[in-house]
Amino acid sequence: MNMLTETALNKVPFEIVEIQTIYLDNNSESHFRPVIDSFQIYRILLGNFFKYFLSSLLSAALDLSVFGLADWLLPKSPFIFWELQ
After folding, report:
1. DSSP labels for 14-39?
2. I need a surface site. Which of 30, 31, 37, 67 has the fewest CB within 10 A?
3. Is the dihedral of CA 77, 78, 80, 85 positive or negative?
4. Does 36 reside within a domain?
5. Which residues of 2-37 are buried (b: 16+ CB within 10 A; e: fewer)?
6. Secondary structure of residue 85 in the 3-state scheme
7. Does some domain include residue 29?
8. What pLDDT, on the 0 to 100 scale, is given for residue 83?
9. Model pTM?
């Protein structure tokens, strides 16, 4: 899955090759777990989105926290207009 995602993101050309699927004993040896396996696939596909989304949120929180701390600690200067009058 990672290889397919990277291939698509980097626009690497590829081709689809059909293969014959053979099921033995009506696929009794399958270990496919629909919910867990689907979650793992979507985690890979959406992982970059959530990683950058979380990074943006944490960056904004840090910026606002540092600004608020600086506003609270630093003396008010008459040359800086903190409030519109």
Report:
1. ----------SGGGTT----HHHHHH
2. 31
3. positive
4. yes
5. eeeeeeeeeeeeeeeeeeeeeeeeeeeeeeeeeeee
6. coil
7. yes
8. 58
9. 0.42
Residue 83 lies in a domain: no
């890979």: which residue's tokens?
44
Q: How many whole angstroms from its chain centre is CA 22? A: 36
What is the C-alpha separation between 53 and 48, in angstroms, rounded?
A: 8
User: What pLDDT is recorded for position 44?
Assistant: 81
CA 73 from chain centre, in angstroms, equals: 36
pLDDT along the chain (85 residues), means of 10: 85 90 76 86 82 91 92 71 56
Q: Count of domains in the chain?
A: 1
Are 76 and 82 a contacting pair, CB within 8 Å?
A: yes
